[in-house]
Design brief:
Oligomer: single chain
Distance between the termini: 7 Å
Strand content: 15-25%
CATH superfamily: NAD(P)-binding Rossmann-like Domain
Helix content: 40-55%
Order of helices and strands: EHEHEHEHEHEEHEHE
Number of helices: 7
């Protein structure tokens, strides 16, 4: 595990990372553990969490698996309580857990809509609220919410676009309300990232997503390491004067203009850590 950050940066700190068993969440967890943090991997699938814990442990890190369904209030409360029981405190929260599925807007069912909103928006809010009430109100802390590149709408994923836009607003609201307690709240909005999460999609839709690489200024996909670096920066003390912002990690895809479309180039090679 290579990193751009100083060894021991998070020594003695504890971080909850929802959706930490796979993909971007796991990459964030591995890097934080490499830098000294004890990471709590939280999601519904214990099998994935245990595999991730084994990986992080084999790399010399400290990690625990805690089953958590962020759509259920009692599960959130149990996750936060278990974290404090295991580690004695919480310093950081990364709200990475989420989920969506591609669908034309006219075909999204009420069940599908509510599932995505409850996971991405409602779950993020109540996870943040519980960590605040049980820890951050007394000690301060840092939260980073993982959202999406939805600045110009999110065609074929209107449900997650709406949810993530809500999280961006929550980020600003909580940063304002909780600042007096020493809590910083920021968001990271990744573009199209080369992640294991892409494998969950239908092959035809996966190809459609991959084609978006031509719409950013690097004309390639982003990496999990590039997202992780942004998250770790916002969590760490070097970002102590930053709160309430959304950092786009999308090589200017959100600024795409047909007037001057990106030109294929190798000027910004992928950073893998």
């Amino acid at each position: 595990m290579n990193t751009a950050f100083k060894p021991g940066l998070f020594e003695g700190k504890t971080a909850i990372i929802t959706g930490g068993g796979t993909g971007i969440g796991l990459r964030i967890a591995r890097e934080m553990a490499h830098l000294g943090a004890t990471v709590i991997l939280a999601s519904r699938k214990m099998e994935n969490l245990l595999t991730a814990v084994d990986l992080i442990t084999s790399e010399g890190g400290k990690a625990h698996a805690v089953e958590c369904n962020i759509r259920q209030e009692e599960s959130i409360k149990a996750c936060v309580a278990k974290t404090i029981e295991l580690t004695g405190k919480i310093d950081y929260l990364v709200n990475n857990g989420g989920g969506q599925f591609p669908s034309p807007a006219e075909l999204i069912s009420p069940k599908g809509w509510h599932a995505v909103i409850e996971t991405n928006l409602t779950g993020t809010f109540f996870m943040s609220q519980e960590v605040f009430k049980k820890q951050f109100v007394n000690t301060g802390g840092s939260i980073v919410n993982i959202i999406a590149n939805m600045r110009n709408g999110f065609p074929i994923m209107a449900h997650t676009g709406a949810a993530r836009a809500g999280v961006e607003n929550i980020t600003k609201s909580l940063a304002t309300e909780w600042g007096k307690y020493g809590v910083r709240v920021n968001a990271v909005a990744p573009g199209v990232i080369k992640s294991s999460g892409l494998d969950r999609y239908d092959p035809a839709y996966k190809d459609f997503i991959l084609s978006f690489a031509k719409n950013n200024q690097t004309t390639r996909l982003g990496t999990e390491a590039e997202v992780s670096s942004a998250v770790l920066f916002l969590l760490c003390p070097a970002a102590s004067y930053i709160s309430g912002v959304t950092l786009a990690v999308d090589a200017a895809e959100s600024l795409y203009s047909p007037v001057m479309p990106p030109v294929a180039n190798n000027a910004n090679p992928a950073y893998e850590g």
